[in-house]
Each structure stands twice: as C-alpha cells, then as structure tokens.
Amino acid sequence: MSQLELLGVVCILGFVIVFVSVIVVQLVVVASHHRRLKELAVHLHRLELGLRQLEGRGISSASPVAMPAEEERMTTLPPPPTSEAWEPGPELTTVEPVRPAAVAAPGAGLETWIGRYALGWVAAILLLFAGGFFLKQVFENRWVGELGRIAIGILFGSGLCALGLRLYRRLWPALSQMATASGLGLLYLVTYAGFGYYHLVPQQRAFIFLVILVLEGAALAILYNAPAIALMSVIGGLLTPVLFRSDFDQYRGLFTYLSLLNAGIVGLVVSRRWWGTGAVGLLGTHLLFWLWYWNNYHPEKLAWAIGFQVVVFSLYLGSGFLISVLHRSPAHAEELARFVANALLFATAGYVLLDDFYHYWMGSLALGLAIVYAGYGWLLSRIQPDDPPHLLAAVAVAMALVAAVFPLHAAANWIAVGWAVEGAMLWWFGLRVRAPSLTVLGAVLLVLAAARTVFVDTPSGARPSFVPLLNSYGLPAAIVAACLAAATWAARRFRPRLGVIAPLAVGGLGLVTVGFIWFLLSVESYTYVLAQTDARGFGRVFDRLAHAVLSGVWALYAAAILGLGFSLGSAPLRWGALGIFSVTLLKVISFDMAELPGLYRAATFLVLAMTLALGAWAYHRFQVGRPTPSLEERGHEAASEV
C-alpha cells in the first residue's frame, strides 16, 4: 500500500470516528435538554393547577400565597406592595397544588427495562461485532499494517472507555457501563492480537499490559459501582493465562498470578457483594487448574498444586466470614452456593492430588476439614448469630464431610452405619432446635444408609454358616434398622414441630423402618437355612425348607407389627402389617402350595392361619376409631387422676 492510500484510509477512519463521536455527543445533549424541558413543563403545570384552585376560591392570582418549596425555586414572586404583614386565612393554610396522578400502563416496567438496558447491551455487543468485522475487512485487504491495526483497536477501545467516563459524569450509568465494558473487551482482544498473532509485544510486556487492564477494570467497576465492568475484568483476568500459554509449563507463575487475581476478586466481593463475580472467579480458577492438571501435572509439582488449592480455598472461605461480619446482613443465595462449592471443589482437588500417595489418610483429612467447618460455624454463631442460612450451610458442609469419612476409612458394610448414625443424630437435633435444614439432611442420610444396605451391601450369593444378625452383614444392617426406628420415635416425640408434614413424616418413616426390618429378616432367615443345608451336604434340594421358613417369618413379623400398631395407635403400622399379610398369603397360594412337600405345606398354612386369626381377634378386641393409648399416655392419665 502506498503512502497516499494509507493517508486516505487514515483520513476515512478519522472522519468515521469524528462523525460517530459527534452523533453520540449530540444524542446525549438532546436527551439532556429534553429531560430538562420535561421537568420544567411538569413544574409549570403544577403551578397552573395551584393558581386555578386559588382563583376558584375567590382569591386573585396576584395575591401573595405561600408556595411549595419546589415551585418557589422555579418562580420568585415580588413582595406585597403594602408594608403591613399579610397572613393567609385558615382556609388557605392547607391549599396545595393538585399533583397529576402517574398511572403506569400495563407492561410499562418490562418496556422500560428493555428500552434502557436490554437494547443498550445488545447495542454494545453489536458494536463489538461491527468493530471486529470492520477490522477483519481492513486486515484481509491489507489496508493497514500490523502496527496500524493494533493502534486502531487501542484507539477504539480507549475511546469507548472515555465515552463511558463521559456518560458517567452526565448521569447515564447504564450506558456508561455498556461503553466501558465494550472498551475493556476490545482492549483485551487487541492486546492478545499484538502478542499472539503479530508478535509485536514480548510476552512479559503483554502480561504487564493485561494486569494493568484487570486493575483498571476493577477500579472503574468500583468507581461506577458497576457489576458488569467487574465481571468483564474477572473474565479478562481468567482469559489471560489461556491467551498467553506457552510451550513450557510455567506453573509457578500461573499459580502466583491466579492467587493474586483471586485476592483482588475476593476484595471486590467483600466490598461490594456483587452477584456472580465471586462465583465466576472461583469456577474459572478451578477450571484453569484442571486444564493445567490434565496437560502438565507431575507428582514433582504436588507441593505447588496443593499450596495453590489451599490459598484459593482460604481466600473464599475467609471472604464469606468477612462479608457476614462487616456487612452485618445474612448471606444471599449466590454467596451460600459459592460457600458450598468452595468446599466441594477443594475436597475434590485434595482427593485427586493426594489419594495415590496418602490413601489411608483421606478419611483423616476429610475429618479435619469437617472440623474446620464446624469451627467456622461456631465462630459465626458467636460473632454473627443473625445469619441462620450461613450457619446451617457450614453445619451441612461439616456433616457431609463427616459422612464422607466412612466411605474413605471404614469397611464397606459399615459405611451405611456411619450414615445412619449421623442421619439419626441430625434428625433428632433438627427437631430439637427447630432447624428444618438439619432435619432434611438427616432424612437424606437415613434414606441413603437404607438404600446402600439394600442395594449394595446385601450379599447376592450363598454364604457359609453364620449366626443370624451377628455377622458381617446382619449386625451393620441391624444398627441401620435401629437408627431408623430411633428416628421414627423422635418424629412421634416432636410431632407438633413437624407442622403439616407430621403425618407424612411419621407414617412414611415408620413404613420405611418396617419395610427395612422385613427385608433384613427375610435375607437373614432365608440365607441362614440355605447355609445350614449346604453345610450338611443336602445341596439345593432343601431350599424349599428355606421358603417355608420365610413364609413363617413373614407371618409372625406381620402379627408383631399389627400388635405394635394397635399399641401405639398407628394406622400406617396397621396398614403395613395388613400389606405384609397380603404378600405372605399371595406367596403361600402361588408358590408354597405347589412347591412345598406335604409337611412343610401344612406347617406354613398353620402358621399363617394362626397369625391371621390373631389379627382378626385384635381388630375385634380394640377400637380402631379410637387408638389405644400407649404406656406413656396411660401413665399421664393415671397421674392426672391422682
């Protein structure tokens, strides 16, 4: 390109820039004058209405009247011609101009939001695309050299930032944020182009430029009180390592840079509490860490990796505490989610990094982290007790880490025991202190313990000779059943505190307990009989005996549950017993009658008939409409009579 052509392109670009700038300035000026004229028209209308009211009461408009403060600033009336002091009558002391009622049209709020914000942000994005397409056309046609292209990008980006400052001073905050964010984004892209594509700037200087851009974005965000600018700065700071990656693994510089960047992000989060800024910083940092891990990790870098994770975890854990203490207000949803995500991400990273070399210490490390969160919750309750969601989140994280200790440290069959014990304690404690979150967490742990016992821990094949319930499967399962029963008792004990869900909680938990014990007794009795026949060399011929014993156990268990239902006055227990009776009867008719030999068949039918007869007698003996009082209730009644 000749110098004349280059001069022409520069002139055209300068003309375009000046033309766009003039149009923007004119639009701003016209909008400002239009707003002032509208305000003046409103004040004049109020003044006219007030004068009409005075004339309607027989008072001349020339008479001096005490005017409101707003109209007194707009119009200054001359003093009365006489020297005597004039006082308004009683009827004039309450005269006020009638203000026109502002009635918003349906959908006016949505329309205003679209007009003020949505259109502006779409315009900002389209402006970036327009600038990119224009620069692409310029670059492809080689109208401007590489240095000129970078200069044009810097000129446009700086111009947009300057326009944002101008709009901010003219009290247009939304437009100011849009222009500033667009300018910062363009400057990030230009800096990357200067380093990555054209190699006009060395890596060290480009890195310094990007750090300056990040600091500039944070400063402008605080100055404008603009979350959008802060978010743009955070995203730009996270993109910097991606844009400036090299062929060599510079992990020390990467971890140092990300630590400093997250320290700045935490500072913004603590001072302003903007939604999304901390979450984007935390998630983006961990994403960059895992990208580095998959491509460059080696056990020799373990110390730096763990140290970096500890620094990031400490920064975000401390930010939650500082926000609660400094602002003296409850944590909002994004802060609570970031609080939980920080623990989850740190625990996951620690497990992946340390499990290969310190597997036997994983349970201890999880317990130590649980102690940290328990101490965090205790300190928070002492310093800021008016933040229950934050405190419950800390307790929930601590309990979840304790629950993770069992899979990491205990044998497989005892994992469910740990979950069940912890769940029963949380269930009882949540009911005791009226904390629904702890109650729900306890219920979840109890359900997980029962599900793991049934679907994971239950042996699928034959077992050698064993003592029923006192074996590697039966004893842990019995403890889980005891925890479920204890939780059911606690639900009945604190029934009024459950509110409208009390019938569902008590009845549902009771049925789960009954079903779990039924399953446990079935597995233990059936496999025990099979183990005994196999030990005596009878083979699989006598598995019919196991089915006969199973039917008898079902019938006796149903009778016991029915008696308990009458004793406690619990309709769900009685219905559960009737359900077990139905299943037993169906099994006897469909399987036992056809498969079992005569003696076993007779014994099975006899046991089932006796238990059904006992149940029928119980229904005749006790009144279902009026539940039989329990022993505790009978004692209270006797004491009241005395």
List strands and helices in order, with pairings.
Blueprint: H1 3-56, H2 69-74, H3 108-140, H4 146-169, H5 173-197, H6 203-224, H7 227-243, H8 251-272, H9 277-296, H10 302-327, H11 333-354, H12 362-383, H13 388-409, H14 415-433, H15 436-457, H16 474-493, H17 502-535, H18 543-568, H19 571-595, H20 598-621, H21 631-641
Helix pairs in contact: 3-5, 4-5, 5-6, 5-7, 6-7, 7-8, 7-9, 8-9, 8-10, 9-11, 10-11, 11-13, 12-13, 13-14, 13-15, 14-15, 14-16, 15-16, 16-17, 17-18, 17-19, 18-19, 18-20, 19-20
Condensed summary:
Helix content is 77%, strand content 0%. The chain is mainly alpha-helical and 642 residues long. It starts with a helix and ends with a helix.
Main sheet: strands, sense, barrel? none
Beta-strand content = under 5%
Q: Kindly state the percentage of residues in helix.
A: over 70%
Q: Compute the number of strand runs.
A: 0
Apparent shape: elongated
Low-pLDDT segments:
3-30, 61-78, 80-108
Nearest-integer average pLDDT: 75
Rg result: 39 Å
Helix tally equals: 21
Structural class designation: mainly alpha
Spell out the helices and strands N to C.
HHHHHHHHHHHHHHHHHHHHH
Can you give a write-up of this model?
This protein is mostly helical and 642 residues long. Among the domains are: 1-59; 538-642. It has 21 helices and no strands. The chain is elongated. The chain starts with a helix and ends with a helix. Residues 3-30, 61-78 and 80-108 have low confidence and may be disordered.
